[in-house]
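Try this one yourself first.
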């Protein structure tokens, strides 16, 4: 077993050699470039993660080489942190009620979407390699090893898209479950493939039994480490629910500590992080589960750093025509295999139609485990197919990391799951005053604005109040500009003066407006106006001061509540 310290120390020493000012400059540059790339690609309606990777390519090994190989290697701890956060949040999606409902479906689809591309890629690569080399032994060995490696799916880029587009539904749930588990299938398939390939290539590797024992150790000990730290974390934070800062600190501390222990013991750190998240969401006290929201808020800049470094690490100029052809066959076979396998698995397990049709779109990304297995293959078969496998997987990772997120977006959009996993805060941020007052979910049956003229008689105003839900009306002058506001409470006070009140007009009973808002104002800003001015209603005006209506706080609350109900019902209807 490789000594973890022997791998970490050289990177750590180089990391310490980077002067603090240089390190801060590099981190700032990576964040800025990544954020710009993500935003530009969002404008093009392409997932932001693709922008991170593309701009990383520009500044990395394949581009201007602003980030050299040693610098990228020294920044590897950032990738470890990002993968730990991803593992933790994916583990948090594996709720026990979800597993009870979809468990058999997960396992059935998992087996078919992993094993089908194993055979398809294995056969296609073997045939193409034999045509060029006329060496059936090395061709079959190459096909077996690449077929096993192609089974794994990278959770990072996939889950980033699911988060970005706030998806929710059976397809999203199944995707989380599959990407959390198919790495284990990939490891087992590699153990089988390398055992068969070794005698064909004349190389020695561990026996199949020894490899399986090693894999089982990695899986179960990683789960134990993650679960143990999850248990400790739940005990620590159960009495800290009023202090978000401390909760976040303890959560990240335990997560990174679990990751460090897993790396030190040469275990799967992503699986350990998943186990920690799984324990927290299923066995920790319910009130401690706010941890996931807090950790999720911490992740965006870490993700930017991670994916920019993924792009910077890729070198696309090392591929020969022969390797390029094998890489295209690998990508095509893997894509076809994942598509056929997921559909067969969905049909057999009677998964919802959206899962059967679109799950394959969410399984194209490849990174961590696939690259790790290619490195293992390079070490196991250094004098034969090992270096070739490393180059092919690196090249195909470049391809699928760019197209994978685009297909994830396409899949969840076609399944109708985009935008269903939102909170009230999300709705507020994306909603304007005009959406509440004149949108399709407006609280009144009639869409006429809450406006009366200055000359309107009080009898007609009373009639309006009795027929409409509005509790406040804007008053406009002859030029249409806002001149006052009438509230139901004030109207009641006026009516108490007796018969004389019947002769009054709107201009006689209105109050002068102290605060107004525009129709383009977002709801968080509108709530701030309500709070800062101690108001329950605010008049809406245009740029020229003309009255457009009234925004009432109870109507905003009603709108947000109805939107949440609508999205929840839509997600439930999907399955």
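Now uncover the answer:
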């Amino acid at each position: 077993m490789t000594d973890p310290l022997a791998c970490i120390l050289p990177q750590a020493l180089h990391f310490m050699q980077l002067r603090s000012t240089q390190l801060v400059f590099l981190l700032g540059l990576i964040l800025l470039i990544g954020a710009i790339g993500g935003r530009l690609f969002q404008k093009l309606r392409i997932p932001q993660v693709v922008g991170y990777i593309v701009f990383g390519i520009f500044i990395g090994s394949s581009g201007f080489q602003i980030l050299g190989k040693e610098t990228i290697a020294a920044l590897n701890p950032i990738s470890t942190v990002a993968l730990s956060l991803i593992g933790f949040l994916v583990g948090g999606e594996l709720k026990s009620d979800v597993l009870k409902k979809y468990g058999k479906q997960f396992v059935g689809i998992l087996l078919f979407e992993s094993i089908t591309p194993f055979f398809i890629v294995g056969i296609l690569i073997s045939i193409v390699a034999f045509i060029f080399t006329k060496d059936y032994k090395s061709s079959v060995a190459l096909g077996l090893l690449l077929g096993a490696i192609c089974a794994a799916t990278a959770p990072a880029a996939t889950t980033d898209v699911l988060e970005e587009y706030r998806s929710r539904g059976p397809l999203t749930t199944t995707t989380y479950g599959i990407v959390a588990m198919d790495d284990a299938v990939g490891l087992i398939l590699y153990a089988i493939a390398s055992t068969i390939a070794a005698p064909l290539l004349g190389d020695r590797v561990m026996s199949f039994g020894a490899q399986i024992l090693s894999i089982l150790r990695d899986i179960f000990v990683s789960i134990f480490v993650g679960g143990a730290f999850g248990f400790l974390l739940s005990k620590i934070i159960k009495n800290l629910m009023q202090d978000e800062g401390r909760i976040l600190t303890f959560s990240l501390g335990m997560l990174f500590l679990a990751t460090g222990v897993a790396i030190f013991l040469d275990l799967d750190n992503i699986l350990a992080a998943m186990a920690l998240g799984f324990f927290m969401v299923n066995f920790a006290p319910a009130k401690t589960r706010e941890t996931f929201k807090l950790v999720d808020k911490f992740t965006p800049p870490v993700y930017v750093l991670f994916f920019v470094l993924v792009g910077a690490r890729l070198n696309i100029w090392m591929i020969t025509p022969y390797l390029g052809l094998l890489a295209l066959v690998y990508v095509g076979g893997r894509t076809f295999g994942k598509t056929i396998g997921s559909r067969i698995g969905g049909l057999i397990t009677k998964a919802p139609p959206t899962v059967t049709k679109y799950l394959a779109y969410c399984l194209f990304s490849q990174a961590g485990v696939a690259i790790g297995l290619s490195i293992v293959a390079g070490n196991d078969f250094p004098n034969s197919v090992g270096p070739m496998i490393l180059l092919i997987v690196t090249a195909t990772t470049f391809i699928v990391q760019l197209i994978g997120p685009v297909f994830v977006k396409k899949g969840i959009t076609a399944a109708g799951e985009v935008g269903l996993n939102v909170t009230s805060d999300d709705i507020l941020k994306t909603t304007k005053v005009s959406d509440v007052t004149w949108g399709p979910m407006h609280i009144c049956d009639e869409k006429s604005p809450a406006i009366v003229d200055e000359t309107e008689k009080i009898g007609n105003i009373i009639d309006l109040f009795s027929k409409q839900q509005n509790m406040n009306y804007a008053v406009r002058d002859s030029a249409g500009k806002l001149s006052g506001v009438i509230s139901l409470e004030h109207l009641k006070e006026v009516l108490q003066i007796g018969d004389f009140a019947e002769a009054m007009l709107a201009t006689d009973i209105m109050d002068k407006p102290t605060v107004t808002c525009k129709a383009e104002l977002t709801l968080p800003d509108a709530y701030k106006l309500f709070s800062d001015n101690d108001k329950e209603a605010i008049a809406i005006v245009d740029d020229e001061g003309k009255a457009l209506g009234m925004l009432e706080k109870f109507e905003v609350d009603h709108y947000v509540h109805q939107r949440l109900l609508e999205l929840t019902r839509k997600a439930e209807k999907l399955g």
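Discussion: The mean pLDDT is 81. The first helix runs from residue 4 to 17.
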